Amino acid sequence: MMMFYKSLAIFSCLCFFMPISSTAQSDGPPVLDTEGRPLQRDIEYFIKPAITDVAGNLTLITRKGDQCPFYVGQLPLLSQDIGNGVTFRPYLEGEDTIREGRDLKVVFQAFSICITSTEWKVGEADPTTGRRFVKLGSDDTATGYFRIDKSDLGVYNIGWCPSDVPIRGRPRCGSAGILIEKGLRLLALDGSAFPFEFVRVETAAKDLWSIFQQKK
Q1: pLDDT tens digits along 83-129
Q2: pLDDT tens digits, 44-73
Q3: 3-state SS, residue 170
Q4: C-alpha distances in Å from residue 189, one per residue of 52, 62, 110, 119
Q5: What is the share, in percent, of the chain residues with pLDDT greater than 90?
Q6: What whole-number distance in Å separates Cα of residue 120 and Cα of residue 6?
Q7: β-strands 71-74, 58-61: how paired?
Q8: Which pLDDT band, with edges at 50, 70 and 90, does 160 fall under?
Q9: What is the DSSP letter of 129?
Q10: What pLDDT shows up at residue 123?
Q11: CA distances (Å), 126 to each of 118, 123, 200, in order?
């Protein structure tokens, strides 16, 4: 009888530490674009404010004192630029649909004359505010993965809080918002979450063409 209980205890421990299957982990509502379609791996999207008359799309930003665009930032409202599109790559292999609360890579689809990756990663903290900037650079650890969550108000927020990627200890989770530094709008964690929405680049191009045709 004692051997039976020992075997049962060992079996229970093994079940407790057994990793959850990818299928179980990938369950969850899909993130939707502005047309109500689920976001897909390797499809290019603009990330724009979910509220109007605030600012423009997200793009590569050159911070004061730098010669290269190493940061993720937001265009000013009246900018003639439309920003840079991004693609999403889920951490879970075989998952093509972008789902809420799942770890994923965010990559700008942009050309840079600087020798750096256009992948997003968690960067250093601002010495004054303590908020962590979102930077560019290749990083296959947990700090190179983000997530998209829907708020209680029904808008999407971008954040960092690893759930699929292995990480030691308890992560310092944070939502992405905008930190204004000398007129620059920089994406940074640990502040108020900024509401975003996602529009396919091809959809945005069609809208711009339609507006151009109306003005002719």
Answers
A1: 999 999 999 999 999 999 999 999 999 987 787 899 999 999 999 99
A2: 999 999 988 899 999 999 998 888 989 999
A3: coil
A4: 22, 18, 23, 16
A5: 69
A6: 48
A7: antiparallel
A8: very high
A9: T
A10: 96
A11: 21, 9, 32
Q: Helical H runs in the chain?
A: 2-17, 22-25, 201-215
Q: Is the dihedral of CA 100, 141, 66, 110 positive or negative?
A: negative
98, 47 Cβ separation under 8 angstroms: no
- Greater model confidence, 197 or 212: 197
Contact (CB, 8 A) for 46 and 82: yes
Answer yes or no: are the C-beta atoms of 190 and 176 closer than 8 Å: no
The token pair at 180 is: 């204004």
CA–chain centroid gap for 7, Å, is: 44
**Integer Cα distance of 169 and 135 in angstroms:** 23
